[in-house]
Design goal:
Number of strands: 0
Number of domains: 2
Mean pLDDT: 84
Order of helices and strands: HHHHHHH
Structural class: mainly alpha
Low-confidence stretches: none
Length: about 140
């Protein structure tokens, strides 16, 4: 394992990811304060069901305010995605900074596959509750 290459890749990935997050947050904040329009969810508009990303912005703002349970109710993908990213960040840093050639991060894609499965299962369950039982989890999270 070449730590110089790993360090370079870590820096490039974090710069690219950081730029992407900064642009996304700027857009969300501008929509939140009414400076740019908030486009409707096309999936919800045509199907009257929630897409995997519905509630994500509200979940993000709730997470920023420290309301973890409320954030999970809006969309657990945000909280669990943050945990997954934090895991990879910490383990990559431990590998780069470590004195030996020990690798702390997993090269397996199983955590990512589990994350995608969790998002899809939550989407299906949320829509069954919405369409089948009339229970709107996003609306109930907003009332918390």
């Amino acid at each position: 394992m070449d730590k110089k290459i790993l360090k370079r890749d870590f820096i490039i990935a974090n710069l690219a990811g950081g730029l992407g997050v900064a642009v996304m947050l700027a857009r969300i904040l501008l929509q939140h304060v009414g400076k740019i329009p908030n486009p409707p969810c096309i999936f919800f508009y045509y199907t009257h069901m929630y897409c995997p990303g519905c509630g994500g912005t509200r979940a993000l703002f709730s997470l920023f305010k420290g309301h973890i349970i409320k954030s999970i109710c809006y969309n657990p993908a945000v909280v669990f995605g943050a945990i997954l990213i934090l895991y990879y960040e910490v383990t990559f840093l431990m590998t780069i900074v470590g004195k030996k050639d020990r690798v702390y991060y997993t090269k397996s894609i199983k955590p990512i596959i589990l994350y995608v499965i969790m998002v899809l299962v939550f989407t299906v369950v949320r829509n069954i509750l919405l369409v089948g039982l009339g229970i709107d989890l996003i609306e109930q999270a907003g009332a918390m």
